[in-house]
Design goal:
- This protein is of the alpha+beta class and about 350 residues long.
- It has a domain of about 130 residues: ApbE-like domains (T-fold), CATH 3.10.520.
- Strands 2-3-4-8-9-12-17-18-19 form a 9-stranded antiparallel beta sheet. A 3-stranded mixed beta sheet has the order 1-10-11, with no helix packed on it.
- A hairpin with a 2-residue loop joins strand 18 and strand 19.
- Bound molecules: adenosine-5'-diphosphate (ADP) and magnesium ion.
- Magnesium ion binds next to strand 12 and helix 8.
Length: about 350
């Protein structure tokens, strides 16, 4: 079983390519580990036999695919395509890659479903709150500065016609951090599929896609840990086949000021960092990009709105609320279908 929140620490391993044989099966499980987007990644795949050379080549391909994602959508890299379009002037179309177009369109889809809770134009607000690439969050910005920055956020401030991207305000900045990790997981899953590998588990920093079976011919089982520092208590275990899981939580990336806890997730409507009693939101979806973005949006929407949406749209959502030290778990009908016990 893989424990989502614990995964990162478990997987920090100097062994890049390892293999385990199951006693009663000819299938073996192979692991490929590495680093991307400030996280560890892990690909586990089940096959009858793979030579070290084949594994080496597969790892090279995985690294290449991750490099393409980063070079396209990392705001943390000055030479990325997203950094280039963020520095682009207003009212002058710029031709963007298909890779970037696909992720912008996927983001806009989630923006629509979530009534604007997921919004990739929050970049300047993320910076204002000190969570951007060059920021250190320390204090709460003034209402005036929030309103000023908010005046040029919102997806009506850019257009995408085919591959032509045009900003209406030069200060508009796209931030794909809320969806990029999930998208990278999808890219790795596609890569494995295209090589005829159909039994695998891909994880980037806790965003997961699992398909097929483990060497014992059972589905991949994923344990969701209690989202608390040093906790290893498993809240629920999920059986996943051909689906992605993403978790969003505020206990890793936040700052405390004036008696409050401020998250790196921004409510696009208020321009403010969210303060919520939801300590984690987990979403299961066919694509990891969607799951990732919906998990972030869940934190913004709050329990009532996201659980209602989950019911209406058959979304698989689990929230964990911390009500003054007492944890309360909400699971949508669709989510319950994946629970194993
Ligand atoms: P989490 O796992 O906490 O959801 P993610 O890494 O998925 O975190 O996304 C958080 C990042 O997304 C932030 O650091 C910020 O760059 C960006 N972001 C913040 N608020 C929003 C929002 N409302 N919509 C889209 N992206 C956001
Ligand atoms: Mg997310």
């Amino acid at each position: 079983m893989f424990n989502i929140k614990h995964l990162t620490s478990l997987l920090i391993s100097s062994i890049l390519l390892t293999q385990t044989t199951w006693a009663d099966s000819a299938d073996k499980i192979y692991h490929i580990n590495g680093k991307t987007m400030g996280n560890n990644y892990k690909v586990s795949l089940v096959a009858n036999s793979m030579t070290p050379q084949q594994l080496y080549l597969l790892r090279e391909d995985i690294e290449l695919k991750l490099e393409i994602v980063n070079k396209t959508m990392s705001t943390w890299r000055k030479d990325s395509e997203i950094s280039k379009i963020n520095a682009w002037p207003a009212d002058k179309p710029i031709y963007i890659s298909n890779e970037l177009k696909i992720i912008i369109l996927a983001s806009k889809k989630v923006e629509k479903i979530t009534s604007g809770a997921f919004d990739i134009t929050v970049g300047p607000l993320v910076k204002l709150w000190g969570f951007g690439p060059d920021g250190i969050p320390t204090a709460i910005p003034s209402v005036d500065s929030i309103n000023q920055v908010k005046s040029y956020t919102g997806s009506s401030n850019f257009s995408l016609m085919g591959n032509n991207y045009t900003k209406k305000d030069s200060r508009l900045q796209l931030d794909l951090s809320g969806i990029a990790k999930g998208h990278a997981v999808d890219i790795l899953a596609d890569t494995l599929d295209s090589k005829g590998i159909h039994h695998y588990f891909v994880d980037i920093g806790g965003e997961v896609f699992a398909k097929g079976y483990r060497p014992n011919k059972e589905n991949w089982i994923i344990g969701i840990e209690e989202p608390k520092k040093n906790s290893t208590h498993i809240i629920t275990t999920l059986s996943i086949n051909g689906k992605a899981i993403a978790t969003s939580g505020d206990y890793r990336n936040y700052f405390e000021a004036e008696g409050g806890k401020f998250s790196h997730v921004i409510n696009p409507k208020t321009g403010r960092s969210i303060q919520t009693n939801i300590i984690s939101a987990t979403v299961i979806a066919p694509k990891c990009a969607t799951a990732d973005a919906l998990a972030t949006a869940s934190m913004v929407m709050g329990t009532k709105a996201i659980m209602q949406l989950a019911d209406e749209q058959d979304l698989a959502v689990m929230l964990i609320e911390d009500n003054f030290g007492e944890l309360k778990i909400h699971q949508s009908k669709e989510f319950k279908k994946f629970i194993t016990q």
